[in-house]
């Protein structure tokens, strides 16, 4: 061999063989595993230290609350109003509502009206119910 400098055509080969030892450690799968374990511990740790104290009710055999029948307000085609099938004037409704509230503090009401009734009459009755502090009000879809 000659001691001449290597030219462009000649290069010293510094490649490794295919069966050489691995000098680098691939830590990507290790980091993935650490992140998954971290997330699992972050989720499960708060449930392990739950210091919530509950006072559960005792098993008492009290009867269920008495269910009251609703009071029906019917609005006829000509504007006539009846409460529980008794014809009344619209001016008398607040007094009737107060009388019903004496027997039941929060009575339920259902307003039934013909589909030809002007909607303003139904709204006026709902306003009177609200002024009487009655909040259990339903609207019936059809009159039977």
Write up what this structure looks like:
The chain is an alpha/beta fold. It has a domain of 69 residues: Nucleotidyltransferase, domain 5, CATH 3.30.420. The chain has three helices and five strands, in the order H-E-E-E-H-E-H-E. A five-stranded mixed β-sheet has the order 3-2-1-4-5, with helices on one face. Helix 3 links the parallel strand 4 and strand 5. The radius of gyration is 42 Å and the shape is elongated.
Fold topology:
Elements: H1 28-48, E1 71-75, E2 81-83, E3 86-88, H2 93-103, E4 109-113, H3 119-131, E5 137-139
Parallel strand pairs: 1-4, 4-5
Antiparallel strand pairs: 1-2, 2-3
- The helical percent reads 25-40%
The number of helices is 3
Indicate the overall shape: elongated
Give the terminus-to-terminus CA distance: 117 Å
The largest sheet, given as strand count, sense and whether it forms a barrel, is: 5 strands, mixed
Structural class per helix/strand content?
A: alpha/beta
Taking pLDDT < 50 over at least 5 consecutive residues as the criterion, the unreliable ranges are none
Query: Kindly state the mean pLDDT as a whole number?
Result: 80
Question: Order of strands in the sheet with the most strands?
Answer: 3-2-1-4-5
What is the succession of H and E elements? HEEEHEHE
The CATH architecture designation of the domain at 71-139 is 2-Layer Sandwich
Percent of sequence in beta strands: 5-15%
CATH topology of the domain at 71-139: Nucleotidyltransferase, domain 5
